[in-house]
Write a structure and sequence with these properties.
Keywords: Membrane, Transmembrane, Transmembrane helix. The chain is mainly α and 178 residues long. It contains 6 helices and no strands.
Length: 178
């Protein structure tokens, strides 16, 4: 027994109305305008902010984030500059995996810095219980070293998580329309 839809499909008649989307659509077209520009340009702006923060961090002497941010910026520039070859599902999937790895790396490093700060705070308290001046100097040095690291890594983690979300939306759109 055939249903009405099967017989209509064989005849080429389509009585169904297009479905309306309710609420937020997770898949985002890379060229669709959202907050004044497309998600590709949002990711580009976040990559530039991450690169600037990495440059500030590399002035101190740590260049590990600089390489990650340069690769991320290069990948999104390829998508924007040559969309014919790089605005496809596979490219977005590679970018999505890269941003997940970058978020995990940043989160791991941030946790390590916070644990080192807690340990150094405890050591400075135990070392200088009777010496008030030494405790103040060591606390100032610890805060001068660790607080900028924690702030930089927190900002980079926030922007990389947002970039991961936007790249996920573009990957989902490319997957649905491949």
């Amino acid at each position: 027994m055939r249903t009405q839809n099967e017989s209509d499909q064989e005849k080429g008649i389509n009585h169904e109305e297009p479905r309306e989307h309710a609420g937020f659509e997770m898949a985002a077209e890379p060229d669709k305008t959202c907050c004044l520009c497309s998600p590709r340009f949002h990711v580009l702006a976040q990559c530039i902010v991450i690169l600037i923060m990495s440059l500030i961090y590399s002035i101190i002497g740590y260049k590990d984030l600089l390489i990650w941010s340069a690769v991320g910026l290069f990948m999104i520039i390829l998508v924007i500059a040559i969309p014919k070859f790089f605005a496809n599902f596979y490219s977005f999937a590679i970018q999505f995996l890269f941003w997940i790895a970058f978020c995990l790396y940043t989160l791991t490093y941030l946790i390590m810095i916070v644990v080192m700060k807690i340990k150094s705070d405890k050591e400075s308290e135990n070392r200088t219980k009777g010496d008030k001046g030494g405790a103040a100097v060591s606390a100032f040095i610890i805060n001068f070293i660790f607080i900028p690291f924690i702030a930089i890594y927190s900002i980079i983690l926030l922007f990389s998580m947002l970039a991961t979300f936007l790249v996920f939306r573009m990957t989902l759109f490319a997957y649905k329309n491949r």
